[in-house]
Amino acid sequence: MKRATRKRVLVLFAAICCAAFIVIGVEAAIDVLTHDRGTSQATLNAREMVARANVRLQRASTSLRTLVASGVGSCRPGDIEAMRRAVYTTTPVKEVALVDGAGAVLCSHHGFGSDHKAMTAEQTVADSGITVSMVRFGESQEPALRLRHPVAQHYLAALVPAEIFEADDFIPPAQGLGVRLFLAGIPSVLHDPGEPVGPRDVRVVVSSSQFPISVEIVRTMGGLKAEGGTLVQYTRAGGFVVCALVIALALSTTRPREDPVGELRAAIAAGEIVPFYQPVMDIAAGRLIGCEVLVRWRKPTGEVVSPGAFVPLAESSGLIFELTLALMRAARDEVADVYALRPQLKLGFNIHAEHFDNDRIVKDIQEIFGHSAIQLSQLMLEVTERAPLADLAAARRSIAALQALGARVAIDDVGTGHSGLNYLLKLGVDAIKIDKMFVDAIGTERYSNAIIDTLAELGRTMRIDVIAEGVESFEQVEYLREHGIHMAQGYVFAPALPGQAYIDLVEAMCHDSPEADALKMVRNRTPLPRYISARNRQIG
C-alpha cells in the first residue's frame, strides 16, 4: 500500500512539474506571438499612414503650384478668393496663407493672418520648389505640416494638420499605442501610449520616399495583450486544459479504471447528460421553427463529450432509455419558459428503435410533458436508423398513439441505415429527414440531386414535411429552396447550441407573436399544402 501511495505521489509530482513547464512555455509563446502580431500590425499601419501622407501632401503641393501659376501672390481680394477656393477644393488643406521671408503671416484665405509657430527648419522637397516644415497654429496650437512655395518676394503656404494622416479605421485610442509623425527629426505626438515604453515593446518606423517625413508606431506588450485579451485567454485556457489532461492522465495510470457502464449510469443520475439544440429553419421565410435536441455528456471537469463516445454504449447496455428520459427532462426544464410563449416552435428528440416495441414511449411522453408548459403538439420524435424496428405493427401503434396526443413523428436519415420506403409505407409518419450524405453531394453527384428531388416530390405527394439535415453552404440552401424543401438544419445556420445560447437565439428571432408570424408567412411566400396528420391518412 505504501509503495503504491509513493508511486502515486511521484507520478503526480512529475505531472505537476510537466504542467508547470507547459504553463511557462505557453506564456513564452503568448509573448512571442503577441510581439510578432503587434509588429506586423504596426508595420502595416505605419505604411498606410505614410502612403496616406504622400497622397495628401502631393495634393497640397499641386494646389500650391496651381495658385502660383495663376499669379496669386498678394492680399488683394481676388487672390484671397483664389486661396479660399483652393482650401475648399483640396481636402487635406486647412489654411492657405501668404507669408513673408521671416515666416510671418500677411494674410490667409480667411482674409486675416494667424500665427504660425515654427517647430522645425524648412526641408526641401526634391524637384518641386516647395519646402516643408512643422508648425503650430491657431488658438489650440495644433501641429501641422506647412508647405511653402516662393512667389515674388513672399511665399504661398498651405497648412495640413498632422492628425489627418491617420486612417479613419485606425485603432486609437487603443491601450499602449503611441503614434508620432517626424519631420527633420522633430516629432509630433499624435497619440501617447499612456504607459512607459520598454525594450520588449514593439517599435516600428517607416519613412516616406517622396517627402522628408517618417511615422513611428509604438505598441506596448501590455496594450497588445489587453487588446488581444480573448486570444490570450483562450491560449492560456488551452495550456491549462493540457496541464489538466497531463495531471489527469498521470492520475489515471495509478488507479484502476472504472466500469464505463457504471460511470455512464452515474453520470445520468448526477445530471451530467445535457441537451444541445440544433436549430431548424424555414429557409423560405427565414424563420426559426424549432430545434433537434442532441445529447452531450458534460463531465464535472467541464469536458463536453460528444454522443459518438457514449451513445453506442448506452444502446448496447440498455441505458439508452434512462438517457433519453433524462435528456427530455433536462430540455423540458431548460426551454419551457420560452416555448410556452411560442407554441409554434418544435422540439425534436431522437428515439431509439426499441422504444417502439411497446407503448412505453407513449407513457413516458405523457409523464414528462403532460403537465409541462411545453405542449405535446410542439414535440417531434425522430425514429433513428441505428437499429431496425423489430415489430413494425407495434411501432405503428405507438406512433399513432403519440400522434393522437398531438406529437409528430419523423423518420431520421432517410436513405441510409435501416430506414427506407418500407417505413414510409407502414409507419404513417409526419415528416422525413434527408441525410447529410445526400445534401453534401448537391451539385457534385447527379444521382444525389435526383434522390433529393424524388424525396421532395414524395413529401408533396404524401403530404408530409421534408427536412434537410447537415446543410453547410448557401448553395445547398438555394438548391433546396428552389426544389420545394423549406425546412433545413445545419452549420450554415448554427451548430448545436448549449441551452442559454439557443434561448438567446429564440428570443432574438421569435420575438413576434404567433399571429404576427403567421401574417408574415402569408405575405412572404405561398403556403405549403395543408398538413394532414399521418394517423388520418389511408396507407396500405
TrEMBL record:
Keywords: c-di-GMP, Cell membrane, Hydrolase, Membrane, Transmembrane, Transmembrane helix
Enzyme class: hydrolase
E.C. number: 3.1.4.52
One of the Pfam families matching this protein, by short name: EAL
Lipid bilayer topology: Multi-pass membrane protein
Entry GO CC: plasma membrane
A single MF term (Gene Ontology): cyclic-guanylate-specific phosphodiesterase activity
Domain EAL: 257-510
Chief location bin: membrane
Reaction catalysis annotation: 3',3'-c-di-GMP + H2O = 5'-phosphoguanylyl(3'->5')guanosine + H(+)
Compartments where found: Cell membrane
Keyword Aminoacyl-tRNA synthetase assigned: no
Keyword Transmembrane helix tagged: yes
PANTHER family recorded: CYCLIC DI-GMP PHOSPHODIESTERASE PDEF, CYCLIC DI-GMP PHOSPHODIESTERASE PDEL
Protein name: cyclic-guanylate-specific phosphodiesterase
Organism: Blastochloris tepida
